[in-house]
Amino acid sequence: MTKRDRIKRTATILFAANGIRNTKIEDIANVLGMAKGGFYYYFKSKEELLLEIMDNSVISRKEFLKEVGDLDVPFEEKLKMIVRRRLTLKDDRYNLFLFAKIYENGEINLTYDEYMKRDIIFSEFLNNNREHIKEEYRSEIEKIRTMLSSSLTTLLLYLITQTGIEVVDEDSYKRMVEKYATIDITREIEMFYNLFLKSMLN
User: Fold this and answer.
1) Which helix (H) or strand (E) holds 76?
2) What is the distance between the alpha carbons of residues 25 and 40, in angstroms, rounded to a whole number?
3) Does position 1 have pLDDT exceeding 60, yes or no?
4) How far apart are CA 25 and CA 13, in angstroms?
5) Cα–Cα distance between 60 and 116 in angstroms, integer?
6) What is the Cα–Cα distance from 17 to 168, expressed in whole angstroms?
7) 125 vs 127: CA distance, rounded Å
8) Which of 17, 51, 180, 190 has the smallest number of CB atoms closer than 10 Å to its CB?
9) Predicted TM-score of the model (pTM)
10) How many CB atoms neighbour CB 99 within 10 A?
11) For residues 133 and 114, what is the distance between their CA atoms, to the nearest angstrom?
């Protein structure tokens, strides 16, 4: 892992654990054992760092949805794959943890607002598969996207709570992820699909 990537990982977990506003550049530098000036060698500000973290997430999601869209499998299976990705919390998926905590804490700032405005990837995916959605819902794609995103984030936060581990740093994040891995995600996917997705499909 490069130093730049190490900074992003550490910052992401600290942002999620302690809040973006409460996390100072000094906090990130201290955890990494580097001088504050070392941080500025890689990033001009906390806002630039946060923007890169979010941009990386957009790129990753876009690539994933393109791969899913190209698969020769039923549409409902594609939706389940998307749900699985949104509920799969691994050590290297700390961005997902950050976005869930931002949602939970209501910690919205201009950087995150801008990210959400550009978060049209899933809407595009649904629009590209309109023939699989019941006609009465086709004019409500953006509303559906918002409802599904909120519901999945709420479920993810609930499952994180079920681990019983409060994340305050990278070590506790790792412990939480290890405990999270014991959850039956397949069961959660089926439940979510049956409750929120099945009724809107042809």
Assistant:
1) helix 75-87
2) 9
3) yes
4) 13
5) 15
6) 5
7) 5
8) 190
9) 0.89
10) 23
11) 29
